[in-house]
Amino acid sequence: MIFDIEYETMPREALESIQLRRLRTTLERVNTTVPFYQEKFKAAGILPGDVNSLEDLQKIPFTTKQDLRDNYPFGMFAVPMDNVVRIHASSGTTGQPTVVGYTARDINTWSILMARSLVAGGASRDDIIHNAYGYGLFTGGLGVHYGAEKLGASIIPVSGGNTKRQIIIMKDFGPTILTATPSYTLYLAEVAKEMGVSFEDLKFKFGIFGAEPWSENMRKEIENKLNLVAVDIYGLSEVMGPGVAIECHEAQNGLHVFEDHFLAEIINPDTGEVLPYGETGELVFTSLTKEAFPVIRYRTRDITSLNPEPCICGRTHIRMKRVSGRSDDMLIIRGVNVFPSQIESVLMKIDEVEPHYQLVVDRKDNLDTLTVNVEVGENLFSDEVRQLQDMEKKIAKDIKEYLGVSAIVKLVEPKTIARSEGKAIRVIDNRKI
Amino acid sequence: MFTEQISIFLENKTGRIAEVTSILAEADINIRALSLADTSDFGVLRLIVNNNEKAGEVLKSQGFTVNKTRVVAVEVEDKPGGLHNILDVINKAGLNIEYMYAFVQHSKSNAVMIFRFDKVDDAVIVLKENGMAVIDGDKVSRM
Question: Which ipTM was obtained for this model?
Answer without folding.
Answer: 0.84
